[in-house]
Structure formats: C-alpha cells, structure tokens
Specification:
This protein has 116 residues and is an alpha+beta fold. It is built from 3 helices and 2 strands. The protein has a domain of 60 residues: Aspartate/ornithine carbamoyltransferase (Rossmann fold, 3-Layer(aba) Sandwich), CATH 3.40.50. Helix content is 32%, strand content 9%. The longest helix has 16 residues. It starts with 35 loop residues before the first helix and ends with a helix.
Length: 116
C-alpha cells in the first residue's frame, strides 16, 4: 500500500495579462471597435476563465455595472449579474417600466451620476 503525500494548498495567482502592451481603458460599443489581436485575446481570456475561475474571483472588486434594457430580459439580466458577482463586482438594474430613460432627467445627467 503506497502512502500518498498530502495535497499542497493552492496559492492565489493574479490573473495573467494576455496583452503584450498596456491598453488605455475605453468603452466597447461594437465588436468592430476591437482589432483582430484583441478579439483573439478575449477568446484566450474566456478560455482561462472557464478553466480556472478561482484565479479571477476578485478581478472586478470595486467595479459596478448598471444595466438598462429596453425590453424585459430576465435571462440576460441574471447572466450578467451572475458573471459580475463571480468576478467580485456589483450590478444595478434600472427598471424602465416605472420611469423611462430621458423622461424626467437628461441622459447626460443620468450618465454623469453613474460615473461617480
């Protein structure tokens, strides 16, 4: 009967950087805003997220995502909430059935308040 050595505790690793050069933060409006190398990096990153989710748990700590949907979309909302939560971020859902965007306050004012 062979003796097995006890498992070694896993050390917390920082998520690896896939980009060769630093990238300035920017808003992603369309997939066309990305270069082919950036799209490939995203696919590589998502593969690593699926393989080692624990390495990415605090990646979005302190980050917030505000969700606006023109049409009710429970499945999309829950998917985004679960993803943000698993990465340490938080979400806010703005229900437009009670008050439509741009009805009482301008979109500029709403966006300015959310950026704080």
């Amino acid at each position: 009967m062979a003796l097995m050595s006890p498992p070694t505790p896993k050390t917390k690793m920082n998520p690896p950087s896939l980009l060769t050069e630093p990238v300035a933060p920017r808003d992603l409006v369309s997939i066309h805003d990305l270069a082919p190398a950036e799209i490939l990096s995203l696919f590589n990153l998502t593969s690593m997220l699926k393989q080692r989710p624990a390495d990415f748990r605090g990646t979005l700590a302190g980050k917030q995502m505000v969700m606006f949907f023109e049409k009710p979309s429970l499945r999309t909302r829950l998917t985004f909430e679960a993803g943000m939560d698993s990465l340490g971020g938080s979400t806010f859902f703005v229900d437009q059935t009670a008050s439509r965007l741009n009805a009482r306050e301008s979109l500029y004012d709403i966006a300015h308040n959310l950026e704080r």
